[in-house]
Amino acid sequence: MTKADVIARIASQTGLTKTDVREVVEGFFDAVKSSFKENDPLEIRGFGTFHVVSRAPRKARNPRTGEEVPIPARKRPVFKPSREMIKAISGTD
């Protein structure tokens, strides 16, 4: 499902215009991005938690040459689904 599909589905369910829904969806994504930048977790009850984890620097190998390649430290977003979400997906309501 793409962002356009999400917007179309929400617009058809709510009766709002796609333009209005697009603004809300874009606003939500901007809020998530800014919370990631501030290293502030985002919790949506019944859905899950988004947070940022720090990955330590490490060394990898180029499989073709065997040469060691340094991989710098970085941050990655992580999503942890709630129990309700896991139950809904597995069909054990």
Task: Lay out the secondary structure.
Layout lengths: L2 H12 L3 H20 L4 E3 L3 E8 L2 E4 L6 E4 L2 E8 L1 H8 L3
Antiparallel strand pairs: 1-2, 2-5, 3-4
In this structure, how is the largest beta sheet organized?
3 strands, antiparallel
Report helical residue fraction.
40-55%
Low-confidence stretches: none
So what's the CATH class of the largest domain?
A: Few Secondary Structures
- The count of domains is 2
Radius of gyration, rounded? 19 Å
Judging from the principal axes of the Cα atoms, what is the shape? elongated
- Here the CATH topology of the largest domain equals HU Protein, Chain A
Number of helices: 3
CATH architecture of the largest domain: Irregular
**What's the β-strand tally?**
5
**Order of SSEs:** HHEEEEEH
**Strand order in the sheet with the most strands:** 1-2-5
Mean pLDDT score: 93
CATH homology-level superfamily of the largest domain: IHF-like DNA-binding proteins
Strand content: 25-35%
Head-to-tail CA distance between termini: 24 Å
By secondary-structure content and strand pairing, the structural class works out as: alpha+beta
